[in-house]
Write a sequence for this structure.
């Protein structure tokens, strides 16, 4: 029977009697957690929450990196009917206070002493009564989570089980605050039924089950990562937790997952590293030849077949297999979500024998709307909509969705909730189209579309993704809204650029000097000029602005889920952008495109 609530998923996990539900790295080894241990730990925390008077409808926050305790706290809250409010571990104290206050959270789980101090510093501003710390921190201000876990029952707790099973699909499960690419975060309310209905369908067509392993490294505060982990656990896949992305490479080599789920930024880094290793003569010539071989057999890869070719097997032995080995060597299923992958990147992976199944969704849709599957896969699309979801395209190109996984609204924001729907259809804010075969393609965010002063509309995301396929480009932001012509702001891939500079006698004492050097400016102007050859006249990028910073969540240029914050980037570099356009106008007034 398909799960109707997230608690049904919990019971499916513990009743499978799995010897290795999850695992985590302790010192030099990976420690497994069995179904029996998992139940004891969750039940122990759930009992403690109830003893503090926390129950159905009360909000409980989780402020932590990925680790077993995150999922244990999550299920403990869900079993007693509490509403889980995830908070990114990277946010500031001020941002944490906003979410705790807006949600009215009565309790908060924190991972480390650093996170504990963050909450203690703002607790008086909030309604938070109880704090639980996951690490063994010496403190009189918080409960120790591991003590609560160890106090859990060795046998099933009938009272807890009955209470958990009494919750229904319409009960609120979680309030997930959107990452805020365009403004103040809003709390999306997702019910048990919203999440469970999505989990029922998102992996249909994928061969996943007991005996397989996946690494949980994407922040669980993000709806995509949390959904993936719920779905994997429900299907019996073992989860290996990685708290920090810097630990991912080591974990891949040690765990050797059979399933790899990542966001485009992770796939981009793997591609960049492969290109870097192929620099210099004669490696670059061999590498380009091997990629030509891969492109010849790309169609076979996209059909899920290994090419029956001697030359392909040689290329695989020399290069393709080395990329897979860097990702653990055993992965057979690759999935991408959270942001657009980019066609060129998907093609590069297909050329080296890796078929990436790109999907699409939003926090408000629990999240998956569409996904490519082994049986229905089309490059350049995000796949076909899930079986229980309806998708249509509005006259202005916006993607509209309805179905059981669509959220109930924004927490305490009735007007914004009303504005999010049109005749019962949720307005995604994305521009896209459905082809004759039913595959969905996403062009761009509706709010991100650039309209030049000449009235031409430009979709920036496809341009940016294509530019980022060049290893010298870490980030690209297309500019030009209400301007006479489009330009691009580029944050270089500095480690490679610095190597290039030294090889080309470019001296520099700082990144600011590096990006200002005439040779470096000419290098990037050449990259953009080559790119412009494939663009329509009104899309051609007339100016290039190089910046001396890497984008990050700390600077506000990326969200906590590693998506680029376009408006924040434009505001951060407003002076430089204005000066670039003013200089262009002085040098040679450009006619409107």
């Amino acid at each position: 029977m398909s799960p109707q609530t997230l608690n049904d998923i919990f019971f499916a996990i513990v009743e499978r009697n799995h010897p290795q539900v999850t695992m985590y790295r302790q010192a030099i080894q990976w420690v497994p957690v069995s179904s029996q241990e998992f139940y004891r730990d969750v039940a122990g925390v759930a009992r403690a929450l109830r003893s503090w008077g926390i129950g159905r409808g009360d909000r409980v926050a989780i402020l932590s990196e990925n680790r077993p305790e995150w999922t244990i706290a999550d299920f403990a809250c869900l079993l007693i009917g509490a509403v889980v409010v995830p908070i990114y571990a990277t946010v500031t104290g001020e941002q944490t206070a906003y979410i705790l206050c807006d949600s009215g959270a009565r309790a908060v789980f924190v991972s480390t002493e650093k996170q504990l101090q963050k909450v203690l510093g703002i607790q008086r501003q909030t309604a938070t009564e109880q704090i639980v710390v996951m690490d063994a921190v010496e403190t009189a201000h918080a409960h120790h989570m591991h003590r609560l876990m160890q106090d859990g029952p060795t046998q099933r707790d009938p009272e807890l089980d009955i209470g958990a099973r009494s919750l229904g699909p319409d009960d609120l499960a979680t309030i997930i605050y959107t990452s805020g690419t365009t403004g103040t975060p809003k709390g999306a309310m997702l019910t048990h039924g919203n999440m469970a209905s999505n989990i029922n369908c998102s992996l249909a067509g994928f061969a996943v089950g007991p005996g397989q392993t996946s690494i949980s490294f994407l922040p669980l505060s993000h709806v995509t990562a949390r959904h993936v982990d719920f779905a994997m656990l429900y299907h019996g896949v073992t989860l290996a937790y990685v708290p920090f992305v810097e630990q991912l490479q080591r974990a891949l080599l040690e765990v050797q997952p059979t399933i790899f789920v990542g966001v485009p930024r992770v796939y981009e880094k793997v591609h960049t590293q492969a290109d870097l290793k192929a620099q210099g003569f004669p490696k670059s010539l061999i590498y380009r030849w091997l990629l030509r071989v891969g492109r010849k057999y790309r169609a076979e890869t996209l059909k899920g077949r290994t090419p029956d070719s001697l030359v392909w097997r040689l290329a695989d032995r020399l290069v393709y297999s080395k990329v897979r080995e860097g990702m653990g060597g055993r992965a057979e299923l690759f999935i991408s979500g959270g942001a657009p992958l980019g066609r060129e990147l998907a093609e590069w992976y297909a050329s080296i024998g890796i078929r990436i199944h790109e999907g699409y969704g939003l926090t408000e849709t629990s999240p998956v709307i569409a996904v490519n599957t082994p049986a229905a896969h089309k490059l350049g699309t995000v796949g076909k909509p899930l079986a229980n979801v309806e998708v249509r395209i509005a006259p202005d190109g916006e993607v509209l969705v309805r179905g059981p996984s669509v959220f109930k609204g924004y927490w305490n924001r009735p007007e914004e909730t009303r504005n999010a729907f049109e005749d019962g259809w949720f307005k995604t804010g994305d521009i896209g189209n459905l082809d004759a075969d039913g595959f969905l393609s996403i062009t761009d965010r509706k709010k991100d579309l650039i309209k030049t002063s000449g009235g031409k509309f430009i979709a920036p995301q496809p341009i940016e993704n294509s530019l980022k396929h060049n290893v010298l480009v870490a980030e690209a932001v297309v500019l030009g809204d209400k301007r006479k012509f489009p330009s691009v702001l580029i944050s270089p891939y500095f480690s490679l650029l610095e190597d290039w500079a030294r090889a080309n006698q470019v001296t520099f004492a700082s990144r600011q000097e590096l990006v200002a050097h005439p040779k470096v400016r000419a290098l990037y102007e050449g990259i953009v000029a080559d790119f412009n050859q494939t663009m329509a006249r009104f899309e051609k990028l007339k100016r290039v602005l190089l910046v001396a910073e890497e984008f990050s969540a700390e600077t506000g240029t990326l969200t906590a889920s590693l998506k680029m914050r376009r408006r924040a980037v434009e505001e951060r570099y407003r002076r430089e952008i204005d000066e670039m356009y003013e200089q262009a106008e002085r040098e040679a007034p450009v006619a409107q495109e």
Notes: The mean pLDDT is 94. The chain has 22 helices and 27 strands. The first strand starts at residue 22 and ends at 26. Residues 6-167+203-260 form a domain with the Rossmann fold fold (CATH 3.40.50.12780).
